[in-house]
Amino acid sequence: MAKCSLCDRDAVYCPRYEGRCYCREHFVKWFEGKVRKTIRKFSFFGKEEHIVVATSGGKDSLAALYFLHKLSRRVPGWKISALLIDEGIKGYRDEAIKDFLRVVERLGVDYKIVSFKEEIGYSLDELVQMGYERGLPYKPCTYCGVFRRYLLNKHARELGGTVLVTAHNLDDVVQTFLLDLYRGDVKKIPRLGPVTGVSSHPKFVRRVKLFYEVPEKEVTIYALLNDVYPSTFVECPYARFSPRWQIRSFINRMEELYPGSKYSLLKSLLALVDALKEKYRERPRTCKICGEPSSGEICRACQLKMELGILDVKL
Ligand SMILES: [Zn+2]
Ligand SMILES: [Zn+2]
To answer: Per residue in 106-125, pLDDT tens?
Structure first.
């Protein structure tokens, strides 16, 4: 068994791109130091913040909540809240909510649960079925993504949040980057920056991707070592409909063969975000129907509702 590079205990993890090994204790220190460095580098937070953590009940967002709660004890001007969006995916989200409640109660963090059913009128399962019956061309992840983004922003703002944290990790970011490239969606690349939505609309809450520079595997180990790993890990039943899974295994194979290649992709991405952000700067308008920030006259959430026949408005 490999030994820690910093002491003589057994190692729990050896990042190949670093050529070192860490025991439990040194892993946690190293991991937290790395995230704090990301926070400083991209100026994620100020001294006074109400940080709303978008939490799904999965390992990444529970790890984000745990980490920020721990860090907040050293920053008197910070308040931490957790926000969970319940899409209503049978057998998936209900399990995750139990894990979410276990962690927020243990940490003593304020939280809010918002459901698709109450806010949109239908659960994701129902929306997917309705879209299918109407012959709409969208995949489940479209409904989920559009309504979730919409509700996260709206409720983070209503909670009084000054910044919304998502637990996107290095793997998520570089996967989306390659997906955008494969789809020719170059204009979406600036959204993959570490901070988005800065003062672009008065109703838009600034967003930061907490684990921007941390591979998924390391977030998993951190969650396990701090007992916030979900007790029941269930894969989203809709995941197999997404091309992300092909990209994910491709990127992981490349990382196996060439350690550090995920960081190289991130470096390319950051350079592109910088080069493209002015060209594709988004100037959000206000949705004519719901009053939320929108890229066009009508926001994506209201558009989807109209296509699904659940929003009847005369324009
Ligand atoms: Zn050690
Ligand atoms: Zn709208």
So the answer is: 999 999 999 999 999 999 99
